């Protein structure tokens, strides 16, 4: 028998939720309970084949090619549903650009590299990075750079093209191809768009994922006296046109993702994140490069973090699906576990620490000194506060990196414990190196 889940009890474990600009009490109203095209689609699906997993629900609601929230919306920024660090301050992207150049130098200045961004939103982050690449043209001269964007959203890919490409050079489009769009940046760098990471050429690459892993579908599980039971979504028998959470009557295959020694009583697992981390790790171990992942998350300690955002407010995840963003905290412990064999990992470390180590204070001072416009100065200071303040994004957001083992350990994986550790240059941003 499918057992109803008491939703409000689970929500209590998230006392204060942050995505974008505002704090919330967590007592989000279930207003706006209208029948959206997505709700109609999901009810039809559930009536035909039975309750669906939370992962299937997230995937349908966010990326269904016809009605998905990400596919046709521009949800970022003040007028959208949430705001992200690159949209808050140019300094964020500039420091990340410096990080990639620093890693490129530390790894021996390869003759070419690909910059691959997963889920690039409005293209703002890659735009800020490309500006740094242009400003440091003398350092990168003779390096053959190409940009590769992995994006499922038709709407956002159009905005990315507007942000990043030179309008005088027409875009090449081919919806049937794995590379569905091609263009050239304002500084003459080729840009290609893909729907899947697997389709990006396997060259020497630097990968970037900012607020990407948190939108990937999660399975949710609850510990019961009978063992782990997966949370599903069903139609509420009491109220037509309403969805509710239920527990599966027996074990489901996704339970295999739960660790045998798991001590929490509610867990979220994201197999898609595991697949992507394994793909990144495989690529980095074979061809070199690095991945930088920034997101809000935890180290395998949190329980129910699944939530919705609409108009900069928390939104009931089951209400008016398709009109609000759905997200769950990234489990960095799980990401590390998926990567460990093939590559080394650093972090997660808090955003405030990473940005401080990258020199955010110096960069802010330079920009303040250069500007005599009071409103610009105020904007710079407010942006800094939003990114760095521990009560805002400074603590909640984390940085995590994947690097070839040799990058951190020199050739230590070939040495025994008695031999001294070979020197490797520190990795910018991560002040304490984790020797794994
Ligand atoms: C929360 S937004 C973050 C945007 C941007 N990185 C930023 O920080 O401003 C998530 C991004 O990932 C994209 N996205 C969501 N699911 C995806 C998937 N399965 N594959 C590729 N892109 C996806 C969305 O369209 C959007 O561009």
TrEMBL record:
<dbReference type="GO" id="GO:0019899">
    <property type="term" value="F:enzyme binding"/>
</dbReference>
<comment type="subunit">
    <text>Interacts with NDUFS2.</text>
</comment>
<keyword id="KW-0489">Methyltransferase</keyword>
<dbReference type="GO" id="GO:0035243">
    <property type="term" value="F:protein-arginine omega-N symmetric methyltransferase activity"/>
</dbReference>
<feature type="compositionally biased region" description="Polar residues">
    <location>
        <begin position="413"/>
        <end position="423"/>
    </location>
</feature>
<protein>
    <recommendedName>
        <fullName>Protein arginine methyltransferase NDUFAF7</fullName>
        <ecNumber>2.1.1.320</ecNumber>
    </recommendedName>
</protein>
<dbReference type="InterPro" id="IPR003788">
    <property type="entry name" value="NDUFAF7"/>
</dbReference>
<dbReference type="Pfam" id="PF02636">
    <property type="entry name" value="Methyltransf_28"/>
</dbReference>
<dbReference type="GO" id="GO:0032259">
    <property type="term" value="P:methylation"/>
</dbReference>
<dbReference type="InterPro" id="IPR038375">
    <property type="entry name" value="NDUFAF7_sf"/>
</dbReference>
<dbReference type="InterPro" id="IPR029063">
    <property type="entry name" value="SAM-dependent_MTases_sf"/>
</dbReference>
<dbReference type="GO" id="GO:0032981">
    <property type="term" value="P:mitochondrial respiratory chain complex I assembly"/>
</dbReference>
<keyword id="KW-0808">Transferase</keyword>
<comment type="similarity">
    <text>Belongs to the NDUFAF7 family.</text>
</comment>
<keyword id="KW-0496">Mitochondrion</keyword>
<feature type="region of interest" description="Disordered">
    <location>
        <begin position="410"/>
        <end position="436"/>
    </location>
</feature>
<keyword id="KW-0809">Transit peptide</keyword>
<comment type="function">
    <text>Arginine methyltransferase involved in the assembly or stability of mitochondrial NADH:ubiquinone oxidoreductase complex (complex I). Acts by mediating symmetric dimethylation of 'Arg-118' of NDUFS2 after it assembles into the complex I, stabilizing the early intermediate complex.</text>
</comment>
<dbReference type="GO" id="GO:0005739">
    <property type="term" value="C:mitochondrion"/>
</dbReference>
């Amino acid at each position: 028998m499918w057992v109803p889940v008491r939703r409000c009890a689970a929500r209590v474990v998230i006392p204060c939720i942050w995505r974008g600009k505002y704090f919330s009490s967590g007592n989000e109203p279930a207003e706006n309970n209208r029948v959206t095209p997505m709700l109609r689609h999901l009810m039809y699906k559930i009536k035909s084949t039975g309750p669906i997993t939370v992962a299937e629900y997230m995937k349908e609601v966010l990326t269904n090619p016809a009605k998905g929230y990400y596919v046709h919306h521009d949800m970022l920024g003040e007028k959208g549903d949430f705001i992200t660090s690159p949209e808050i301050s140019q300094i964020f992207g500039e420091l990340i650009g410096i990080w990639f150049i620093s890693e490129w130098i530390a790894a021996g200045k390869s003759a070419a590299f690909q910059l691959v961004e997963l889920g690039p939103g409005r293209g703002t982050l890659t735009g800020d990075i490309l500006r740094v690449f242009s400003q440091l043209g003398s350092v990168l001269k003779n390096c053959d750079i190409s940009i590769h964007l992995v994006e499922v959203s038709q709407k956002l890919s159009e905005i990315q093209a507007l942000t990043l490409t030179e309008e005088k050079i027409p875009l090449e489009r081919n919806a049937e191809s794995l590379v569905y769009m091609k263009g050239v940046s304002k500084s003459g760098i080729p840009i290609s768009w893909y729907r899947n990471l697997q389709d990006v050429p396997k060259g020497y690459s630097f990968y970037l994922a900012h607020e990407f892993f948190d939108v990937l579908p999660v399975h949710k599980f609850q510990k019961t006296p009978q063992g782990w039971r997966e949370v599903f979504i069903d139609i509420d028998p009491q109220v037509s046109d309403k969805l509710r959470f239920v527990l599966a009557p027996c074990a489901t295959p996704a339970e295999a993702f739960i660790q045998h020694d798991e001590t929490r009583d509610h867990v979220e697992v994201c197999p898609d994140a595991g697949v992507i981390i394994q793909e990144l790790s495989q690529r980095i171990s074979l061809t070199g490069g690095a991945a930088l992942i920034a997101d809000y998350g935890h180290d395998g300690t949190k329980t129910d973090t699944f939530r919705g955002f609409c108009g900069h407010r928390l939104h009931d995840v089951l209400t008016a699906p398709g009109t609000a963003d759905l997200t769950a905290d990234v489990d960095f412990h799980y990401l590390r576990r998926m990567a460990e064999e093939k590559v080394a990992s650093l972090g997660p470390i808090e955003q405030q620490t990473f940005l401080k180590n990258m020199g955010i204070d110096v960069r802010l001072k330079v920009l303040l000194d250069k500007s005599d416009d009071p409103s610009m100065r105020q904007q710079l200071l407010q942006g800094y506060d939003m990114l760095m303040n521990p009560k805002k994004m400074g603590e909640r957001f984390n940085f995590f990196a994947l690097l070839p083992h040799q990058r951190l350990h020199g050739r230590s994986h070939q040495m025994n414990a008695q031999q001294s550790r070979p020197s490797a240059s520190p990795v910018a941003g991560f002040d304490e190196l984790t020797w794994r």
